[in-house]
Design a protein that fits this description.
alpha+beta; 4-stranded antiparallel β-sheet; globular
Amino acid sequence: MIRVSLFMTVLIDCIAILLMIAADQFSKFFIVRHFALGQKLTVIPGFFAITNVRNTGAGFSILTDQTAFLSLVSIAAVIALIYLLSKERSAVTRISYLLIIAGAAGNLIDRLRLGYVVDFLDFYIIGYDFPVFNIADSFITIGCVLLILINLKDIRHA
């Protein structure tokens, strides 16, 4: 009985990760296929545009042109998070790990395949042109915010 439950948990986790990676990769494929590099389509004036850009760095373009280093860090992070996921029982923490794993893997695929990450979500927030990002970045951010909230809740209840 416990093996079936463990098997189903692992299967569901793998399917969730693969679906998130597929959504990320499909969105990037669509952008590259239908938008020239640098092309911008304003969706909501003054708030949101779709812009095809290449990012050879990490978030906010830090560590630009450090593809090999960023790839190694991504691989290490995915391995560590898979290990943590295998030990975790909290559903919300597991979801956080799944989001971060899928996001890191989605961007890693770009780095290994293309040498850069395809970014395209371009927001303007209170007049600030926020750095362009992608769906994988969103998964990572949501997963990290969930982990922070979980840990803040745990600290308050300690």
